[in-house]
Amino acid sequence: MLQILAASVALAASPVAIQGAPDPHRPTPVIDTTSPDVPAGLRNGVLIVSKTNAWRHLEHIPHSNRVLADLAGEAGRAAFVTENAAVFTDAALARFRVVILNSASGSFLTVDQRGALDRWLSRGGGLIALHAAADGSHDWPRYRERVIGAAYAGHPGGADQFQAARVIVDQPRHPVMRGVPREWAPIDEWYSYKASPRGGGMAVLARIDEASYRPGAGRAMGADHPIVWTSRWGRGRVVTSTIGHLSAAYDDPVYRRLLANALRWVARH
Q1: What pTM did the predictor assign?
Q2: Would you give per-residue pLDDT tens digits along the chain (269 residues)?
Q3: Could you tell me which residues are beta bridge partners of residue 193?
Q4: How many Å apart are CA 225 and CA 153, to the nearest integer?
Q5: Domains, in order of start, for the chain
Q6: What residues contact 199, with CB distance under 8 A and at least 6 apart?
C-alpha cells in the first residue's frame, strides 16, 4: 500500500521584497544564487516554484501553492514550496519527481540553473507550467519551445479581463483529462497566442470556444484556441495549463481534478 506523505511546505523567501515594491504586481527582478535548504529525507517530492521576476499574480499566490501542496500530499508525495530559483541545481532537483511552475514569470534562472532543469527534464522529470508560466515574459528559447510552443499574444483587458468561457476537452481519454467534463465554463483570464501551440508540436488536451467569450481585438485565434496541452522534453513529460489567474480556480473541483491528474501523469504515478 502506498504510504501517504505529509506535504512539507517551506516558503523559502526570495530576496525580492514584494510588499515594499511600489507596485506589488511588479516586484523588482532578482536572480537567486544561494539555494534554499530542502528538507532532509525528502525523496521523489514535488517542487512548487512561484518565483516572479515579471507580473506577480497576487490573486492566487500563495493560496494556489497550498492547494498544489495538498494535491501532492494526496498523491503520496511531499511538497516543497519556494520562491528561491537557486533550488534549480542538479543535487536539489534529484530530490524531486515533479516541478510545478506556479505562475512563475520573467527571466529568473541563470544559465547554470537552466542547465540543471534541462538535464533533470531530459532524464525523465515531470513539469507542470501554470498560467503565467506560459505567458510572454519568458526569454529562455528551449523553455518557450518545449513548454509554451507559441508566441504569447495577450488576454482581454478592462471589464472583459475575467469572463466565463466554454472549455472543450479534445482528448477525454488522456489521463490528464480523466474525470474532467467534456465541457465546462469557468471564469478566468484567457490567454491567446499568435498561433496554436499545436503547430509547435504540442498535444492539445483542451481548448476554448471563442464564441463563448470576448477575446478582444487582435487576440482571436479561431476554432483552434488551446488552453491545456502536453509536450515532451527529452524523456520528461510536460503539462501546460493557462487556466488559473483567480484564486477561485484552485477551489474548483473540476480544475483540481485536472491538476491532480496532471501531477500523477507527469510523475508516471
Answers
A1: 0.92
A2: 333 333 344 443 344 444 444 799 999 999 999 999 999 899 999 999 999 999 999 999 999 999 999 999 999 999 999 999 999 999 999 999 999 999 999 999 999 999 999 999 999 999 999 999 999 999 999 999 999 999 999 999 999 999 999 999 999 999 999 999 999 999 999 999 999 999 988 999 999 999 999 999 999 999 999 999 999 999 999 999 999 999 999 999 999 999 999 999 999 97
A3: 152
A4: 12
A5: 18-150+230-266 (3.40.50)
A6: 149, 150
Strand order of the β-sheet with 79-82 is 79-82, 45-49, 96-102, 126-130, 236-241, 226-233, 203-209, 166-169, 183-184
Q: How many CA atoms lie within 13 A of 98 on its CB side?
A: 33
Cα dihedral across residues 22, 27, 29, 35: positive or negative: positive
d(CA 43, CA 68): 17
